[in-house]
Amino acid sequence: MPVEEFVAGWISGALGLVLGHPFDTVKVRLQTQTTYRGIVDCMVKTYRHESLLGFFKGMSFPIASIAVVNSVLFGVYSNALLALTATSHQERRAQPPSYTHVFIAGCTGGFLQAYCLAPFDLIKVRLQNQTEPRAKPGSPPPRYRGPVHCAASIFQAEGPRGLFRGAWALTLRDTPTLGIYFVTYEWLCRQFTPDGQTPSSGTVLVAGGFAGITSWVAATPLDVIKSRMQMAGLKQRAYGGLLDCMVSSARQEGLGVFFRGLTINSARAFPVNAVTFLSYEHLLLSWG
Ligand SMILES: C[N+](C)(C)CCCC[C@H](N)C(=O)O
Questions:
Q1: CA 26 from chain center: how many Å?
Q2: 177 CA to centre of ligand 1 in angstroms
Q3: CA-CA to 94 of 20 to 30 Å: which in 110, 136, 169, 227?
Q4: Atom 9 (ligand 1): residue with closest C-alpha?
């Protein structure tokens, strides 16, 4: 089994992640808190209250976990294509796989990465939603002191299953949308690249960026539900399940609730995924 794809997936994921994290914090806050009027209001309040550091809350854990998550995604994707089409990454330019195969391989990668991602994503969301300024004398300490403390508290209070809160919604969010992700990427690359050639860096950036946007647009409704279910353990008002969360969110806040965070998700998705795909392709090319 080729391992380069796993390593390339990890490094490229980490680069994209740092770039996108401030957008991600604003998104999570807009989706789960009602105190902000919009993107700008949330940014201003976060900055005033918590300084630039506020935007980078909850980042250390995703950086550590992206090693597992993105390498599972790209590694499984590439190896699934190898199993389906009997072509390696290098051979695929000359013999492009069908979109059906790309979609199936993307969904497989998406499904498996969702399970690795679930506990890390839960901790990220919980930490991002702590709006207390860091270490201000006199103010009450935040509920979680950091990722390890957060994981330990959830484990103590709710057991191992608590760490997988929202995992179902996450799997439903990621399985089809990562199929869409790789199909969009492949399709755009092929539009701008003569047959059999390697796409240029510009093409990879644009195709990666739009692949990110397309898959996030499709993923946003379930992303909202996922974030709410992950926070639900903290509040009294816990949801009966995924459907209950959907219905009660829509009843209380209208259908628009399913598009919360869409703009910011798309703004984040372009640079993050452009950089992810560019570094992934470059790493694999340079390793021959
Ligand atoms: C499937 N879904 C849309 C949720 C994610 C697809 C893009 C994944 C990338 N690591 C990112 O964070 O943007």
A1: 14
A2: 8
A3: 110
A4: 273
* CA 216 to ligand 1 centroid distance, Å: 6
Residue 40 exposed, middle or buried by CB count within 10 Å (0-12, 13-18, 19+): exposed
pLDDT, one tens digit per residue, over 162-190 is: 999 999 999 999 999 999 999 999 999 99
Cα 41 from Cα 59, distance rounded (Å): 22
Interface pTM (ipTM) of the complex?
0.97
Closest C-alpha among 91, 109, 107, 228 to residue 165: 228
What is residue 226's three-state secondary structure?
helix
- Taking alpha carbons only, the member of 202, 52, 38 closest to residue 134 is 52
Taking the centre of ligand 1 as the mean of its atom positions, its distance from the CA of residue 137, in whole angstroms, is: 38
What separation in Å is there between the alpha carbon of 141 and the centre of ligand 1? 32
Band of pLDDT at residue 39, cut at 50, 70 and 90: very high
| Contact assessment for residue 132 and residue 53, using Cβ atoms and an 8 Å cutoff | no
Ligand 1 probe mutation, 70, 125, 178, most atoms within 8 A of CB: 178
State if residue 177 touches ligand 1 by the CB under 6 angstroms criterion: yes
How is the chain split into domains, by residue range?
Answer: 1-57+275-287
Q: Read off the pTM.
A: 0.86
The pLDDT tens digits of the residues spanning 184-212 come to 999 999 999 998 888 999 999 999 999 99
